[in-house]
Amino acid sequence: MAQPVKVRRLTDQEGQKLQRIVRRGSTSTVRYRRVVMLLASAGGNAVPVIARLVQADEDTVRDVIHRFNEIGLACLDPQWAGGRPRLLTPDDEDFVVQTATTGPTKLGKPFTRWSVRKLADHLRRNVSRPIRIGRETLRCLLARHSVTFQRTKTWKESSDPDYDAKLDRIEYALTQRPDRTFAFDEFGPLGIRPTAGSCWAKQGNPERHPATYHRTHGTTYFHGCYSVGDDTLWGVNRRRKGISPTWSALRTIRAARPDGAPIYVVMDNLSAHKNWRIRRWAKKNKVELCFTPTNASWANPIDAHFGPLRQFTLANSHHPNHTVQTRELHRYLRWRNANARHPDVLAAQQRERARVRSERGIRWGGRPLAAAA
């Protein structure tokens, strides 16, 4: 039997970059959809589920996953073909790229970064190897070799000594115990203000929202829970993060599997998630808390599903108050859960669960079938 198609284990840098793209949403539609595919696959979702999530063909999802496993994040950018033959040799292109990625100060120039004009002028005046290239051609050449003009940034890698062990435990829960695995996380703060987004409109006539300067409604945080096996997302809006909202969410998750068997909950390392009371309650109620490694919250499978939730309910919105905002969030969640999976996939899963419960002689209430009869 062929193994299911899924992405390889993400590195810290890959996971953080994918998570940042999903949260910001400020990228092309092609890149955004491919990022959601990769995060959803890393979260344990099967190809049919991912195809339904991003409204794409299953073969497209498989191609993106295979491409990522081969070349990494370069798969996010499609390779468009066409154009006239190149006038520069591959060696010339390599020399241009090497020069562009070398600091100007190392080449004796009195500035700290290149502009396209300065780089083209330096290449043309280079005594050892002069290369005549126009600015637009130079810009396209650098983009083709994945050399872009970027801001200098700091980078934070996970220093968790149990990094691999935590990822192994999460992967075990997602692949071996999906029907018993849940994910929990919060996002916010959510304010009441016109939020920029995107929509279809006539050219030159974009939808406009009023500008506001006074924030009198306060903020809320969305606390979301995701059932991996059921592919169901639900949640509530609360005024703040903390121990009580987290505890309440965990009790709701435990109530979703009232048979008393162990369940797994994937969470990040927020201090409110690791309170000693919550840990004691989890141990007593057979709830295993699977914490993501430090600075690796991308490993939480719920993040891939938060992206569309933000994109289709918060972006391009102008809610008058938190009550309306919460109502719209819940309307989307009801629609999303009703359209989450193809009916054939969902029916097959329900039949499989019924078969397993029949073999074990146990129903959802936790009592034997014979005793219930």
What's the rounded overall pLDDT mean? 81
Gross geometry: globular
* Radius of gyration from the alpha-carbon trace, in angstroms: 25 Å
β-strand percent reads 5-15%
| Oligomer status | single chain
Mind explaining what this structure looks like?
This protein is of the alpha/beta class and 373 residues long. The protein is built from 14 helices and 5 strands. Strands 3-2-1-4-5 form a 5-stranded mixed beta sheet, sandwiched between helices. α1 (12-24) packs across α2 and α11 crosses α12 (322-338).
Outline the fold blueprint:
Elements: H1 12-24, H2 29-42, H3 47-54, H4 58-71, H5 90-100, H6 116-125, H7 135-144, H8 163-176, E1 181-190, E2 220-227, E3 232-238, H9 243-256, E4 263-267, H10 276-284, E5 287-291, H11 303-314, H12 322-338, H13 343-360, H14 369-372
Parallel strand pairs: 1-4, 4-5
Antiparallel strand pairs: 1-2, 2-3
Helix pairs in contact: 1-2, 2-3, 2-4, 2-11, 3-4, 11-12
Name a few traits of the molecule.
373 residues; alpha/beta; five-stranded mixed beta sheet; 5 strands; 45% helix; globular; disordered C terminus
Compose a concise summary of this entry:
The chain is of the alpha/beta class and 373 residues long. It is built from 14 helices and five strands.
